[in-house]
Amino acid sequence: MPRQPHQAIAIGKLLNINPSGRCGKLVNRARRLAALEGVLLSVLPPEWKHHCTVANVQDQTLVVSTTSPVWAARVRLMAPQLLEQLQAQCPNEALRAFHVRIHPRVETTHKPNATRPVLSSGSAGLLLSVSKQCSDHRLGLALERLSKNA
Hints:
- The protein is an alpha+beta fold.
- Helix content is 49%, strand content 13%.
- The chain starts with 10 loop residues before the first helix and ends with a helix.
């Protein structure tokens, strides 16, 4: 039986076909969390915005994720005021509590290999002459090995 050609459908349209289905519920939850995050970021001091995000809403509790214990402590100190502002700006959410979690960011930047310092031939000659005049035999051998790295 030959396969019938199908017309391409945009993914956004697919997700909005059945709002009560799994995908629809997931999209609605993501939109809800994104809206809460937008409100949270609007009430936070500007320097905090890169360190705090909305992680979840569970049982009328807003879960906020921070990048370090320092930021978590700051958010906890301001939690009553933040919760009050969020309740005022998002009356449909019925938030009653504020929970803070710490999720440090993992830095993925690649550090280049450290280049080994180059020993000049003049410095190598100086180390070699000092190694021959050194009264400590072990130190003299170490200086001689070091001079060979030029």
